[in-house]
Amino acid sequence: MKALLSRQAGGPETLTLEDVADPAPGPGQVLIAMRACGLNFPDALLIRDLYQLRPPRPFSPGGEVAGIVVDVGREVTHVRAGDRVLAMPGLGGLATRVVADAAMCVKIPAAMSFEHGAALLVTYGTVHYGLSRRARIRAGESLLVLGAGGGIGLAAVELGRACGARVIAAASTQAKVDAALARGASTGFVYPTGEAAGDGRQLAQLFKLHCGAQGVDVVCDPVGGVYAEAALRSMAWGGRYLVIGFAAGDIPRIPLNLPLLKGCDIQGVLYGAHAQRDPAAVKVEIGELLALYAEGAIQPHISARFPLSQGGAAIAAIASRQALGKLVVVNEE
Ligand SMILES: NC(=O)c1ccc[n+]([C@@H]2O[C@H](COP(=O)([O-])OP(=O)(O)OC[C@H]3O[C@@H](n4cnc5c(N)ncnc54)[C@H](OP(=O)(O)O)[C@@H]3O)[C@@H](O)[C@H]2O)c1
Question: Of 80, 152, 180, 237, which alpha carbon lies 20 to 30 A from 188's?
């Protein structure tokens, strides 16, 4: 089989396409012929050794895939060879054959393309868990989405709208805000970047202007940096602030008087850990996502497709803040 491998820590240019031996599924595992692999921000960190996980090398990045089951290991009964499935292996997706834990491998409906299947779990799964199980968002509440044109961001816009929330999209360019508006955000605004962003207190003036005097009920934050404090300062009493990631690079240091004054909660969302700790709950959540997809309430926005050999270019686009929605590697072998 072919695999795009990371043999040394570095940028996407260090990945090499190689012939390697086909893996075999162990007990509780599934071997999948990859048809599509969704790329995510963690892939850009993993290959540079900047992620919380440091897998032994060589490894292939690529945390989520869709394809056809080739073989299953012992104890796997819910899928079998020939099934069309999606899975979240966490690693190894940029290869023509992928081994994934059966617990995070589910059949996809005939109407779902492999590309959509490969673009569902990491972003929609994370946000669905965050909005529905952590923030317990209710219809009629307001939801501020940071980085609203990214993978997590557009998923949050769609899922927020599907919950009946009023979605405010915030992003660094008008094109990203427009993408969020097209996916159901009620309103949106562009935030400054670099030195122009100032500090969190200064930036809060802009955020408050767009979030209104009452403040926002829920914040979905996959960006961090200076934007986090500005968003927290714009919250309503009793709000819930979802910490999803730190794409801006800096892990914000939040003045603890803010959640006190706002009577709000800061809630961490770590989907991979949630999936490991409570696979039964995640199974239910994935079922809910597939139902939302079937209804047409959500549909991953895939802005670019790449062949396996160009998987590094997809990761480079994500790392340089250029990606819109999801980028997917497609294997047509
Ligand atoms: N907690 C979890 O379980 C979980 C699951 C999946 C992902 N994540 C995390 O969520 C974050 C977003 O992931 P994603 O896959 O949605 O990424 P993405 O598609 O690249 O979106 C991230 C967004 O962050 C913003 N950003 C700000 N500064 C940036 C920078 N220096 N470089 C790149 N982007 C920057 C960009 O929006 P603007 O340009 O509009 O600011 C970008 O659209 C990452 O930190 C990822 O690790 C967490």
Answer: 237
pLDDT at 333 exceeding the cut of 80: no
Strands 29-39 and 326-330: antiparallel
Its pTM stands at 0.96
CA of 130 to the centre of ligand 1 (A): 15
Provide the 3-class DSSP secondary structure of residue 118.
Answer: coil
Distance from residue 246's CA to the centre of ligand 1 (Å): 7
3-state SS assignment for residue 329 = strand
Q: Give the DSSP letter string of 301-333.
A: -EEEEEEGGGHHHHHHHHHTT---SEEEEE---
CATH 3.40.50.720 assigned to domain 122-271? The reply is yes
Establish whether residue 155 lines the binding site of ligand 1, counting it when its CB lies within 6 angstroms of any ligand atom.
no
pLDDT digits (tens, 9 = 90+) for 259-275: 999 999 999 999 999 99
Res. 250: pLDDT tops 90: no
* Extents of the domains making up the chain: 2-120+300-330, 122-271
The finding on whether 171 has its CB within 6 A of some atom of ligand 1 is yes
The ligand 1 atom at the shortest distance from the C-alpha of residue 153 is 16
The correct CATH number of 2-120+300-330 out of 3.30.565.10, 3.90.180.10, 3.40.50.720, 3.90.226.10 is 3.90.180.10
